[in-house]
């Protein structure tokens, strides 16, 4: 049923019409009728496209590259290509965020996010050309801004571009945190502590070894995550709706990917099978698995930090975490491990998001996956949160972390602990005899030093 065309209100300056009828658009709005309907239809989360800043920037880069490519192929005039590029530069600079009104949870496989950008670029371009918004005969959101493109290839490409950039931030964050742990490893490389298995006393170990292990595992997990870059670099731009030969445009595909590489400094290539690329989300599933793996490792490390810093008198108390805020208004001097607790929660969120991502990737039907908007929200959120959490952990916790060496030594002053530590070096019988004869006032480090210098018995 068609909507009735309404008369303009003095506070509104234009009507826009689509297949469903006409709607009044606010005077200062750069978005158009598609965005307006989408904002009404998908008003569910309260989180709009404006919150996905990396995705908006990637959209702008794709649109600018497409305009340049279409111009080179003689499909778009110099004037239109230039003004589209100018608006894309404004979007890259963070302008026009208030016009990004579409909810991140939406039907249509990203069509509404895509059209929100198309309409903003067209209407802002019209302003720069000296026309009023809505005069699409001079610059059209579909015929010009979206020329040679479709949501299937643009949204998919923009998401992968955004993730490739976010992985750079994640790499920096992981490397920084790993180095913070490695520095602690170097600082305490010769100091002893009690290792624990099953939360029970086990054997002596080097304090530095514990921190160094944290560093190594973080970097190893990062290697696994960054391996996903190869899949993300294969894009389906130019494949249009279903990637089929019906929309084959090899000249545009070659031109636009070249322009996008120049704009992003990324190494990109066309997907091997454009039909598969229209629906296959396996690269995104792989990335999510990598992020979950890193989140699990990070959460385990934070569990250890909280446990080792517990007490400090009634718990283990081997570590002192930096006091960043008061722990309780009713307990003077109480300091809680709030930074590791925050990181734990980020990890829980990422682990849960991985389940949602898996379901969304599996649930796509036939030649299109309609759940890509949720994949974008979940993956960009997970990557960005993980990077920020790691940077915060490094700066607010690990760099100022202190080791209570006296407490660590006291934990070792027990014959059973000493015996366990000596077994690999002098054998079970001799270790038992020596441990039972040790004087309590003899420094443990002096007792163990000769044995730790030996090679373990075969």
From TrEMBL:
Residues 22-352 form the Fumarate lyase N-terminal domain. Transmembrane segments: none annotated. It comes from the Bacteria. Keywords: Plasmid. InterPro entries: Aspartate_Ammonia-Lyase (IPR051546), Fumarase/histidase_N (IPR024083), Fumarate_lyase_fam (IPR000362), Fumarate_lyase_N (IPR022761), L-Aspartase-like (IPR008948). It holds the Pfam family Lyase_1. Gene3D superfamilies: Fumarase/aspartase (Central domain), Fumarase/aspartase (N-terminal domain). This is Aspartate ammonia-lyase. It comes from Thalassospira marina.
């Amino acid at each position: 049923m068609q909507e009735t065309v309404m008369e303009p209100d003095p506070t509104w300056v234009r009507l826009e019409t689509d297949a469903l009828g006409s709607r009044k658009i606010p005077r200062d709005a750069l978005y158009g009728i598609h965005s307006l309907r989408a904002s009404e239809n998908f008003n569910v989360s309260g989180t709009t496209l404006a919150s996905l800043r990396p995705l908006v920037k990637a959209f702008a880069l794709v649109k600018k590259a497409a305009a340049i490519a279409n111009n080179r192929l003689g499909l778009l005039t110099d004037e239109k290509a230039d003004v589209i590029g100018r608006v894309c530069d404004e979007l890259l600079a963070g302008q026009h965020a208030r016009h990004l009104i579409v909810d991140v949870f939406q039907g249509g496989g990203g069509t509404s996010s895509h059209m929100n950008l198309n309409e903003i670029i067209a209407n802002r371009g019209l302003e720069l050309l000296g026309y009023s918004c809505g005069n699409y005969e001079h610059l059209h959101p579909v015929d010009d801004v979206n020329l040679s493109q479709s949501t299937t290839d643009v949204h998919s490409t923009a998401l992968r571009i955004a993730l490739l950039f976010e992985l750079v931030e994640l790499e920096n964050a992981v490397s920084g945190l790993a180095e913070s742990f490695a520095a602690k490893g170097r600082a305490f490389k010769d100091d002893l502590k009690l290792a624990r298995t099953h939360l029970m006393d086990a054997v002596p170990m080097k304090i530095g070894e514990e921190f160094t292990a944290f560093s190594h595992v973080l970097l190893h997990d990062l290697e696994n995550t960054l391996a996903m870059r190869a899949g993300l670099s294969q894009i389906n731009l130019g494949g249009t709706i279903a990637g089929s030969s019906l929309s084959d445009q090899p000249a545009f595909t070659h031109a636009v990917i070249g322009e996008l590489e120049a704009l992003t400094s990324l190494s990109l290539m066309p997907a091997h099978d454009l039909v598969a690329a229209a629906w296959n989300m396996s690269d995104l599933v792989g990335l999510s698995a990598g992020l979950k793996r890193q989140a699990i490792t990070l959460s385990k490390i934070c569990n250890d930090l909280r446990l080792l810093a517990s007490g400090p008198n009634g718990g283990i108390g081997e570590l002192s975490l930096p006091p960043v805020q008061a722990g309780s208004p009713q307990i003077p001097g109480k300091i809680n491990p709030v930074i590791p607790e925050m990181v734990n929660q980020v990890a829980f969120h990422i682990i849960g998001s991985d389940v949602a991502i898996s379901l969304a990737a599996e649930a796509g039907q036939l030649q299109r996956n309609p759940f890509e908007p949720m994949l974008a929200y979940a993956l960009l959120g997970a990557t960005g949160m993980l990077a920020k959490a790691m940077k915060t952990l490094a700066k607010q916790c690990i760099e100022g972390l202190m080791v209570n060496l006296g407490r660590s030594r006291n934990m070792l002053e027990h014959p059973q602990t000493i015996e366990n530590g000596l077994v690999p070096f002098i054998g079970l019988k001799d270790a038992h005899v020596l441990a039972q004869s040790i004087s309590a006032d003899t420094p443990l480090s002096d007792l163990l030093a000769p044995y730790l210098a030996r090679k373990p018995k075969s």
